[in-house]
Amino acid sequence: MLRTDLRRVTAQVDGMLVCAEYSEQTGQLCLRQDGTLVREWFPPHSWTAIASVAGARHWGTRPTDDDLLALLRNEMTLLRTPQGNASQK
Prior knowledge:
The protein is of the alpha+beta class. The protein has a domain at about 5-65. The chain has helices spanning about 45-55, 65-80, 80-85; strands at about 5-15, 15-25, 30-35, 35-40. It has a four-stranded antiparallel sheet with strand order 1-2-3-4. The longest helix has 16 residues, at about 65-80. The model has no long low-confidence stretch (mean pLDDT about 85).
C-alpha cells in the first residue's frame, strides 16, 4: 500500500485561501488557490523552488511548514506582478 507523506500548509493571502502541498515520497509540489491548482512542480524543480525561499537546509527535499509558507508568499507575490501574469499566458 502506498503511504502518503503529504505536508500541507494553508494561508489567507489578499482574501484568497492558498495552500502548498508537498509529497516527500514523490517530491511533487502543488500550489492551490481557492482549491484550484495554480502551479505544480516535480523534482528537481520542486526542490529548487523550495530551496530558493528556504535556503539549503534540506536542499528542498524536506521542507518545514515555515518553508512552504515562505514559498506560498513568494509565489503569490509573483502571480500578482505584471511580469508574473505575463508568464502565465
